[in-house]
Specification:
Blueprint lengths: L1 H17 L5 H14 L26 H10 L1 H22 L4 H16 L4 H19 L1 H4 L4 H11 L7 H22 L8 H15 L9 H21 L7
Helix pairs in contact: 3-4, 4-5, 4-6, 5-6, 8-9, 9-10, 10-11
């Protein structure tokens, strides 16, 4: 099994460097051989992190009917193809919103169970489809909440896993998330602001000042401090990763 695992690792590394490349004809022949000769193929390739994977997969574009047909003849090929697409999307979504890390963790547990043989390929494929549907639903949540993706990320950081809010408090927290992004736009436009102590301090001050508008009851000082730190970490890491401004 080690040579097979090595091939999967090399393949993932190449995909990360080259981006999406159509090698379906060659891949189909290789995977058909694997399906024919090997009882099970362990998924051991490392998960690609950072911008190399970001935005490469649109779950709405996955042809599940085509995958289902492929599964009927080469189940492990279809499962690995779907796993790769779901994996890239899960990491991209978690980068956009840290509270979505549970999607990555769920996938990792599923892959581990498949590698250990406690989940058969049919159940693995169906579980991947269910996870893809869950991710698709999560991506629509920003529109339902009447927030941008970045506003939703801040809102989630302010409300998960606590505190529990009333409808009125929830509306107030959404307003804080919107106001914060609006106030930060000019400061975040400063080139290489992460390396400028004065700008970093100004951004931290803006975060603290704006989050001071959070409803007092559900945000005692200890919880409030945690939220300030979480939002600062998100703002800092997001601007480290990409040049485009946060969206309002």
């Amino acid at each position: 099994m080690k040579p097979v695992a090595t091939l999967h690792v090399i393949a993932e590394a190449i995909r990360g460097k080259l981006g999406p490349v159509d090698i379906s004809a060659v891949s189909a022949k290789i995977e058909a051989l694997l399906d024919e000769k090997i009882e099970g193929v362990a998924i051991t390739a490392p998960i690609i992190e950072g911008d190399e994977a970001g935005g490469r997969v649109d779950l709405s574009a996955i042809d599940f009917d085509k995958l289902a047909k492929l599964f009927s003849s080469r189940p492990r090929t279809a499962a690995e193809q779907l796993r790769s697409e779901v994996e890239a999307k899960a990491h991209h979504m978690a980068e956009r919103n840290p509270t979505r890390v549970h999607l990555v963790e769920k996938l990792e547990k599923l892959v581990e169970a498949y590698n250990l043989g406690t989940v058969q390929v049919e159940a693995f494929f169906e579980a991947l489809k269910a996870l893809a549907a869950e991710m698709d639903e999560e991506e629509r949540r920003a529109a339902r909440e009447n927030l941008s993706e970045d506003e939703l990320a801040i809102f989630d950081l302010l409300t998960k896993p606590e505190p529990k809010l009333t409808k009125a408090q929830e509306a107030a927290v959404k307003k804080v998330a919107r106001d914060l992004l609006e106030k930060l736009q000019e400061q975040l436009a400063v080139a290489e602001w992460q390396n400028k102590q004065q700008t970093r301090a100004a951004i931290q001050s803006t975060i603290r000042f704006t989050l001071n508008e959070l409803p007092e009851d559900p945000y005692p000082e200890s919880v409030w401090n945690e939220k300030v730190n979480a939002v600062w970490a998100f703002i800092f890491s997001r601007r480290q990763e990409r040049a485009t401004p946060l969206q309002r």
